[in-house]
Design a protein that fits this description.
The chain has 656 residues and is mainly α. The chain has 3 domains: 482 residues, Cytochrome C Oxidase, Chain A; 66 residues, no CATH class; 68 residues, Helix Hairpins, CATH 1.10.287. It contains 18 helices and 4 strands. The strands form 2 sheets. The chain has a two-stranded antiparallel ribbon with strand order 1-2. The protein has a two-stranded parallel sheet with strand order 3-4.
């Protein structure tokens, strides 16, 4: 009998530096995941937490201003609250919400299995978290005080060296460094989404077959990419002025404080569209579903969004009409401000055209979209008033401006986001949010919102200045301010109802199925919630609203006829149930770099993006407190995470 020596493979020892987390479920998996869907949910949860924090700050502000001679807050406390409220709502709510929807939906909508750079994706999220924690740590005792120079941080108030007495403490330092950290996270996310959209679309999905939401996110990502460098340069100059005695913005030493305003608003006005374009995309996806019609004028809506992105770079100085730019400059920017209203108005008419003659289903998501259109239109009309230079000069630094931008951003973005959450909630968890509670939250929010912000138009025209923590009796502002304060608590009640509905429905909501709304876009072709790999078979797109055409056709009289599921009309296009059944049946293997040679290889989880992100706020504290030891500690953590990330294989070596 002959014996044959068989070589037994030895298990390759994996260096400690390369060992990776194994958990795919449980709490720890959320710290190490690279799944774009989990990251989108985390962005959304983080943004909603900061929404609550910013809302509490707003309630304290309104309590202080509920009547004349308010004494709830000191002047310093009020300055800190309104600064952090504005900063929170713009940088810690609006931009992360756009990232939340973009991360979760874009790969599903374009037929991709993930974003282009999964680990960069989670790194961007952790930088956002660290930036927010860094900013709010300034409230802690002994840290030198929270930022108190406004969310715009005008110089030389924020940039003059500490020895001169302007804004003493570390508040402006925390603000400048914190915004740079948040800008890093936003820029990374923007790059990721641009590459994903341009390079990872399903076969047949041309640019003019993409969902409008994907188009608006693409424009938003480009705006972020080009808007962040100017404001980052301005913030770095503020840090240098405060820390090293440079004089970039000191007019007495040859500097120019208006330079800061230009750099900030070159970012600041595109930022308005960074916040509102995702909301416009959400509206453009939801209206066709609940009117059972294609979006009216798809191409016009897309090109209007692109036009808004381009024209948004030419209107920044309407924030500076009171700064003495001269008649030629203010005339030019006044005209550009009028012109940018045109593509915005076109979108509104397209949305109304989508609803006109449709088979309307008045559900909670549609109500939020109608609220968006109404509130945003009011904000747009008051915005056009700012293109008239004499009127803008009168309204500058009054509560009229506060009313305007809340109608645009809160009335626009927040209404769209709450409706979007309600609409896509079944996709996330396979359950509906409670419809009755959804409608209660909507109507309460409509009443509270208008009760809060509409009176501000009048007190602004009556001369009430922004950023005042107290006002005297007999100025005629008392009643309107009381209404606004009552309205703010009505808004809080509406948000509370929405959050309760969100949390309860996650586990107790009515089961929804895979396509509960009879929708039109690809994310509804897969299971709810989707598997980690999104699609067992990458879909092939044959038309705009491709999923709708898989389900319906028209008879000879033009009436809508439902196609048999999985019938010959599908032309080889896989249905949701078929794709998922194939995966679950074992023919398609999935996992973190595993599989049988024919599987779907997904990137493995990693904690090194989190390690890298932790190093950034440590370096931030070093800048604030001018500590070389903190800088070295932060650099060590950052470089360790960077090195380990660079040599870590994208899939698990042990699974190979």
């Amino acid at each position: 009998m002959t014996t044959v020596d068989v070589a037994v493979p030895t298990r390759r020892r994996v260096p400690v530096l390369l060992r990776r987390p194994r958990a795919t479920t449980g709490v720890w998996s959320w710290f190490t995941t690279v799944d774009h869907k989990k990251i989108g949910i985390m962005y959304g949860a983080g943004a909603l937490i900061f929404f609550v924090v910013g809302g509490i700050e707003a309630l304290l502000i309104r309590l202080q201003l509920a009547g004349p001679d308010g004494s709830l807050l000191t002047a310093g406390q009020y300055n800190q609250l309104f600064t952090m409220h504005g900063t929170t709502m713009v940088f810690l709510l609006g931009m992360p919400l756009a990232a939340a929807f973009g991360n979760y939906l874009i790969p599903l909508m374009i037929g991709a299995r993930d974003v282009a750079f999964p680990r960069l994706n989670i790194f961007g999220f952790w930088v956002f978290v660290m930036g927010g924690v860094f900013l709010y740590s300034s409230f802690l005792p002994g840290f030198g005080g929270a930022p108190d120079g406004g969310w715009f941080g005008y110089t030389p108030l924020t940039s003059t060296p500490l020895s001169s007495g302007f804004l003493p403490g570390h508040g402006p330092d925390f603000w400048a460094v914190g915004l740079i950290l948040l800008g890093i996270g936003s820029t990374l996310t923007a790059i990721n989404l641009i590459v994903t959209i341009l390079n990872m679309r399903a076969p047949g999905m041309t640019l003019m077959r993409m969902p409008v939401f994907v188009w608006m996110m693409l424009v938003t990502a480009f705006l972020i990419l080009f808007a962040m460098p100017p404001v980052t340069a301005a913030l770095l100059m503020v840090i240098f002025d405060r820390s090293f005695g440079t004089l970039f913005f000191d007019a007495t030493a040859g500097g120019d404080p208006l330079l800061y305003q230009h750099l900030f608003w070159i970012f600041g006005h595109p930022e308005v569209y960074i916040l509102i374009l995702p909301g416009m995309g959400i509206v453009s996806e939801i209206l066709p579903v609940f009117s059972r019609k294609p979006l009216f004028g798809y191409s016009v809506v897309v090109f209007s969004g692109i036009a808004i992105g381009f024209m948004g770079w030419g209107v920044w100085a309407h924030h500076m009409f009171a700064s003495g730019l001269g008649p030629v400059a203010v005339s030019a920017f006044g005209l550009s401000t009028m012109f940018i209203a045109v593509p915005t108005g076109v979108k509104i008419f397209n949305w109304l055209g989508t609803l006109w003659g449709g088979s309307i289903r008045l559900t909670a998501p549609l109500l939020y979209m109608l609220g968006f259109i109404a509130q945003f239109t009011i904000g747009g009309l008051s915005g056009v008033m700012h293109s008239i230079v004499p009127a803008d000069t009168q309204q500058t630094d009054t509560y009229f401006v506060v009313a305007h931008f809340h109608y645009v951003l809160f009335g626009g973005l927040v209404f769209a986001v709450l409706g979007g959450i309600t609409y896509w909630f079944p996709k996330l968890y396979g359950r509906f949010m409670d419809e009755r509670l959804g409608k209660i939250a909507f109507w309460t929010l409509v009443v509270g919102f208008n009760l809060t912000f509409f009176p501000m138009h009048f007190v602004g025209l009556m001369g009430m200045p922004r950023r005042t923590y107290v006002y005297g009796e007999g100025l005629g502002w008392d009643f309107m301010n009381l209404l606004a304060t009552i309205g703010s608590f009505v808004i809080a009640a509406a948000v509370l109802v929405f959050v309760v509905n969100l949390l309860v429905s996650r586990s107790r909501g009515k089961p929804a199925g895979d396509d509960p709304w009879d929708a039109r876009t690809l994310e509804w072709t897969t299971s709810s919630p989707p598997p980690e790999y999104n699609f067992a078979e990458i879909p092939t797109v044959h038309s705009r609203d491709d999923y709708w055409h898989r389900k319906y056709t028209e008879d000879e009289e033009g009436r809508l006829v439902r196609l048999p599921r999985g019938g010959a009309d599908d032309e080889g296009r896989s249905e949701a149930g078929t794709a998922v059944a194939t995966a679950e049946g074992g023919e398609v293997a999935t996992g973190h770099g595993g599989g049988d040679g024919h599987g779907i290889h997904m990137p493995s989880p990693s904690y090194f993006p989190l390690v890298m992100a932790i190093g950034l706020p440590v370096i931030g504290y070093a800048v604030v407190y001018k500590s070389i030891w903190l800088a070295l500690a932060g650099a060590v953590v950052l470089l360790y995470g960077m090195y380990a990330w660079a040599i870590e294989p994208p899939t698990d070596p042990a699974a190979e």
